Every structure is written in structure tokens, then in C-alpha cells.
Amino acid sequence: MRNWPLSELSVTTPRLELRHPSLDDLDELGERASEGIHEPGYMPFLFPWTDTDPAGRARSTIQYHFRMWGEFAPANWSIDFVVVHDGQIIGTQSISAKSFLVTREAGTGSWLGRRFQGQGIGTEMRKAVLHLAFAGLGASYAVTEAFEDNHASLAVTRKLGYREDGLAMHDRQGKPVVTHRFRLAREDWTESPGFEIHNLAACLPLFGLDT
């Protein structure tokens, strides 16, 4: 789309493509959500959007992406890529920021369909958006947060060199739960071979950044 250059933005890794989704991509992503993301009775998300039936998860997934497209602005933005592996959409990886032009700080979030978990894909897709943040957008910091019982997410974060950045208490479905916050500084980030950003230059004005 000539007037929405984000539609051409992507990041490739040795085995993944992270791309801005088309409508067909969102439909397939909705199918992954409907198939299940986590075990029944467990909630890894602060907003319990998966606590519904399969059709509701699919609709919620698509509506979320529509909202992010409509609200994108330099002062508050989120890019929510679909993750493609062997020609199949398997999950989503986001990078987002508020007041990025001032703070140079971006956060990340993600989920994978259950049948694609445990293969190291979560680490690779996080590394892809860190590459976009530091090598592409000039971030100074990347931050993330996860519940203390989300062991998979915490393992990815620690593997990539983030440092502890405090704790927070949240109400998760009526019960108190701790989240761990982490921060990765540019100087602690290690660039990985085989990671490439595509079609970013045309998108930079949407972030308020110079080309």
C-alpha cells in the first residue's frame, strides 16, 4: 500500500519471516489463536483475552490488530508482526513504544500457537524485533515484563542478556501476582548474523524519524 508503507515492512532471520500482516495473514493468525496458546487454567496475559471460546479468540486477535493500525502515531505505536515459519503463520511478535522520540525505549510482546512452542522459535522472533529496535529504529533500551510463573518467557529474556529492572504487582483474574520487569541496553545487545530488515526507510516518517 503506497500510503501505508508499514504494510511492506518485514524482518527475516535464518528460519523466520516477521511481516506486517495482510487480511489473509490475520485470518490465519486467528486460526492459531483458536487452536490454543496455553494450557487451560493458566493465564500468561495481563488482559485475559484468551479466556473465551475458540471463535472468540480468533475475533479478538483480528480486532486487536485493527485497533493497532488505527491508533499508530509517533507518540504511541505498536507494530504487531505475524511470524511465518515454513510458509505457515505460527504466532505474533510485537514491538511498541510511547514517546519513543524522547525515551528511545521500546517494549516487546508475543505469543505462539501451542504446537509450535518449545522449538527455540520464541527466542529467534524476539531477537528479530530487537534487531529492528536497535539496528533499525535507533533504540537505546528494550524492555519486557512477564508473570513470575511464565517460565518460557522469562527463560527467553534471560538468555538474551536483559537485566532485572524491578517487580510489579497485578490483579490477575482476582488474584495478586508478581511480574518481573527487564531492561536491555543497546550496549548489552549482541547483533546476530542472518537478521535483515526490509523496507524500513519508507516507514520512518510514520515514527517521526528521519530517513
From TrEMBL:
InterPro entries registered for this protein in UniProt: Acyl_CoA_acyltransferase, GNAT_dom, Ribosomal_N-acetyltransferase
Superkingdom: Bacteria
Organism: Nonomuraea zeae
One Pfam family this sequence matches: Acetyltransf_3
PROSITE patterns according to UniProt: GNAT
Signal peptide (UniProt feature, chain positions): none
Protein name per UniProt: GNAT family N-acetyltransferase
Cellular compartments per GO CC: cytoplasm
Record key words, sorted: Transferase
One Gene Ontology molecular-function label: protein N-terminal-serine acetyltransferase activity
Residue intervals of the N-acetyltransferase domain: 16-185
